[in-house]
Amino acid sequence: MNTSTIIDLGFYKIEVEESSNLVKADWTRSVNKDEMVAGGTKLYEVLRDTKLENAIADARKLTALSSETKEWMASKFYELLSQTNVKKVARVVPNDVFSRIALESVVTRAEALGVTKFEVKSFTSPTIALAWLNS
Question: Does pTM surpass 0.85?
Answer without folding.
Answer: yes
